[in-house]
Design goal:
Layout lengths: L8 H18 L1 H7 L7 E6 L6 H5 L6 E6 L13 H11 L5 E7 L3 H7 L8 H6 L4 H9 L6 H21 L2 H8 L4 E8 L4 E6 L4 E4 L23
Length: 233
């Protein structure tokens, strides 16, 4: 136990104590109700980046978001083999009957930076292989031309990645079935944590706009693929 108490773990242990003494007491009835089950408002797929806090961003309580996090907020396409992402989405859509799935990228994403600068991943072969699930993003950024600054390329990559992952989601049988039945909406967001702003891809305009201005911030079966190049800065 003494070794565990070194470093950042100390803060975590202190935090648990504060939670037990303060927060838990004020939300005791909520946690008591949650023992009987959950009815989340949405699946929220986002990056593992420590600067992103889905519940803080959306002002939601425990039990309201079904959260899937990994490096780069990626969802591998459906295949014969199982994946944690596929299983999570399938459970959420089929068992929990969730009607909204949000793919939320974020500014200054290290995963997208690595995708655009593969030489930086030389000592991280697992990360490099994982990012193949966003390979189409590179094509989209390259198609925009050499005139973009590195910052603009990264911003475009973050946007395009959410659209690529939306298309991957559509390959999963549970998602395809729910969308065909009109029971599921897919949303692509980008969170700028340094400003607190969130942009959403408007399926009608085929570009990203501030979330509050999006008139069609989700996809229906009739919509054409978002795909790479579906949105430009």
């Amino acid at each position: 136990m003494s070794n565990f108490l070194h470093g950042g773990a100390t803060r975590l242990i202190e935090g648990v104590g504060k939670f037990r003494r303060g927060v838990f007491g004020t939300k005791k009835s909520l946690f008591h109700r949650l023992k009987d089950g959950q009815s989340p408002l949405a699946v929220f797929i986002t990056c593992s980046d420590s600067r992103i806090n889905p519940n803080l961003l959306t002002q939601t309580e425990p039990g309201e978001l079904f959260i899937l996090r990994n490096a780069g907020n990626l969802v591998p396409p459906h295949s014969a083999g199982p994946s944690g992402e596929g299983a999570t989405v399938e459970y959420a859509v089929t068992n929990l009957k969730i009607h909204d799935v949000v793919v939320c990228g974020h500014s200054h994403c290290g995963a997208m930076q690595g995708l655009l600068s593969p030489e930086a991943l030389e000592k991280m072969p697992t990360v490099r292989e994982w990012l193949r699930n966003a390979a189409a993003v590179v094509t989209a950024v390259e198609a925009k031309g050499p005139g973009l600054t590195p910052a603009q390329k990264l911003e475009l990559a973050v946007q395009q990645n959410t659209l690529v992952q939306i298309e991957h989601l559509k390959t999963h049988p549970a998602v395809a079935e729910a969308m065909a039945a009109g029971r599921l909406r897919l949303h692509a967001w980008v969170y700028h944590f340094e400003t607190g702003e969130v942009d959403a891809h408007d399926a009608g305009l085929q570009r990203f706009v501030p979330l509050a201005e999006a008139t069609r911030p989700h996809w229906t079966p009739a919509d054409k693929p978002a795909g790479p190049l579906g949105s430009m800065i």
